[in-house]
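Objective 1b. Sequence-to-structure analysis of alpha-1,2-Mannosidase.
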Amino acid sequence: MFRLRRYRVFLAFTVIVVLALYRFGSSNPSWRDRAASFAQGQGQREVEEPQVKWEPKPQVAKETKQFDVEVPAAKNPQIKQTPPPIAPVERPVEQTSTTAQSKKSIPVGVGHVGAGNAVRPEATPTPRADGGVVHAVVGDALSSVEEVIHWTKTKEQYPIPTESLIALPTAKAKPIPKIQADFKKETAAEKVDRETKLETIKDVFKRSWSGYKEFAWLHDEVMPVTGSKKDPFAGWGATLVDALDTLWIMGLKEDFEEAVQAVEKIDFTTTSRADIPLFETTIRYLGGFLAAYDIAGKKHEILLTKAKELAEILIAAFDTPNRMPQTYYYWRPDFDSNSHPASNRVVLAEIGSLAMEFTYLGQLTGDDRFYDAIARITDNLEGYQNHTRLPGMWPTYFDASGCVKHDYNIDVSKPLQRPISAGDPGWEEALKNGAYVKADPSRPLVMAAEDGSASTSGEGFSPDGKKYIPLEKPEPLKVVPNGPNPTWKPPPEESFVWPGPDGTKAAPKRRQLAAAGFPSDPEVPFTKPTCDNPGFGPSSDGGREEYTLGGMSDSTYEYLPKQYLLLGGQVEKYRTMYEVSAEVIKKHLLFRPMLPNNDDILFSGKRWVSAQEPGEPFPNELEPEYAHLTCFAGGMFGISAKIFNRPKDLEIAAKLAEGCVWSYNMTATGIMPEAFESVACESRKDCPWNQTLYYDILDPNSENRLKQYEEAMTNYEVRLKSASLWYDEQMQAYMESATPTPTPIQTGVAASATAAAEGVQDKRQLPDFESAAPAPTQNRGLHVGSGSVDVEAPPTEVKPGVEMLEEPLPSKVMPTFPAIYSPQVPLNHEDFVKTRLEEERLPLGVTRVKAREYILRPEAIESVWYMYRITGDNYWREAGWRMFEAINENTKTAHGNSAIDDVTKTSPNLNDSMESFWLAETLKYFYLLYSEPGVVSLDEWVFNTEAHPFRRPT
């Protein structure tokens, strides 16, 4: 009762406060409602208050009503103003049809838009004098001006006189042996089965194409799992252009017409990328346009027009001192208007795989500039071919700048000499001496000496019986002497900006401009580099060089026989270069893998060649790798065996293709991994399965592991014995110290005094108990009766006494045995191998899976298709169907087909990626495998490395 009275006032006050908060918090309109009413009533108060009605308050403490205030001033009509155009950088500009005057407005979202910004749909693009377009952008509640830059054609730094251009051959094509087999007429049942497979393949294509149309139209790629899009290839609709000819071949004419109309919207003069990948752009876009234009009957001129527009941009990448291209072309005018050499470390495939597309464009347009560009590359490849560490092949990286002196003299005017056929006596020695062969079938084989005279009789002849005359070369390029360039002006730093760490734009420092090729001092005029050596050479003096048919090399070798076909056999050097390289490939790269069933197949590995020591040959070693990219080699060897009359190479082609089929069959998914390693046999004829050798390769440290275990056990036993001796000694001491002994114990006050003294004197001496007793003191306190009490009384004097009592000393901690761990018993050799095979999911014969993913690659089915068309053997169709079913089953999604992470799993994960070559190559080769042999016949068409068919000359 007492406590309730104390707090009753506080309780009453609390109830009043709660009621007040409820009344004012729920019945009155919020300040946002009042603001809205005020705006609607132009400042007048409301006349009626709304009735109070209880409603549950929201559980989340946040505003749920929209702040909607009408501002009358915003309704006043105002004239929209566009930002003033940005003053262009002054430089000489040669306006062409691709300049800004003829450009259409850039679509929303295309161009250089800052991170987090979006182009306003109502903003009108403002063209600039130099081809740029200004857009108003809004991002992060701030208004800024963002520039969309366009490529413009500028004056060439190193022009080639018209009379020095290497012209396309115009003579009639030479007779070339037939490639395709003579097929038998199929039965009715075979036709039904074949057409059923065709429809299944077409349905897969249509599902992927629909996913691209719905989610990534005019973008490079669709992400088939999430329905997103991405633009890795400049954002020019790579999948759309790449799949044009496939649409036509499959008879999807309506989709083809729709895609052709969409092509007009592609603007090749601008991209969000700072550089244009020359190789990928050439094979996908340029090859896609040219093939679609020709295969559709040359009726869609827009396709050829777009090809020429793109080619004008790509040809600008060749404007270097030695006319070798910048394989990653920095196209922006402020950078491109200055001189740049080619790279001193280029990838072989990226510079050697441009020939077919530029040649075909030259054939369709009659413009020799495009053929001249790639013919010079071919000349330099020819000159470098026999001067590498592995003569006959090129390393994956080399120097193409022409600005570095090399330790050999390249004579590009002297062609390589075609060797005697493989296996003939003396062909290896002849190859070393640079001799070629008279190929006239009516005369015996004779070698021609380097000066053109015959070493035995007669003269050297070409395959048509005429004397072999090298292709005439133009005059050497005239390099502008190193000196000031009066027309060049350094760009402002403001033109080189990028997002800083806080999201703002930051200009680079002068040293960053210098690293990009600009002088550090703006007052110093720019000078052109002087590069006197036009040829190729090693990219470095030391380290190992890689020689392979796989990635970074593949299509350079592939294009040699195909370019020979595209030129109608009129340029003999492509045959010569191929045959020289083929012999080196067979000798140094191809190997037979050791397999449990003794399968007679071939793989193509890597050859690593180290720098040469004085007086010693180049040390080299084979890496027994087989990659999915390398699977194209079966098709290459197959067509070359036919057109160059090399029947033994056809057996090699079949074994290489069979190696890819085996690689598909070996995994849980039925799909070949990106790359794996096996055991290379020393002989291709005799290669028995050797399980002991295979186990030793999988477990090379078996003996060492056992030896280390034995040493560890010896050390463990020594430590264990030492620890046991120490522990016994400690236990003995512990037991002795624990035995009870008589101990003098002091009693009474003396004992207390002694204990106190020991505490003060650190137990080093005993006090005098009599002198230590406290002296009597006077009573100074108050007595109880009078309000006082005694504070202190004299102590009772006690004499010290000593008693002998038996009591143990304080107990010590029992010793603990040291922690000594025994070494783990290792797996024996056999168990170790079995465990590794199981954990890494290694097929027998495979020693390591280097890359487990599958990205929808076409190279395996490509060679299978070539072998079917060349041999007519139905086995290749059966193998191809197993491959197709395995791929589709493991990669299909709702919006297409996706790359997977691990082909050795029974249920791989989808990587949400569908590259354009899935529609351009993989599905096209599957479809052609079950088409009639006359559909895109190899005797009429030749395919580029992206499976785009170019018509052969007749």
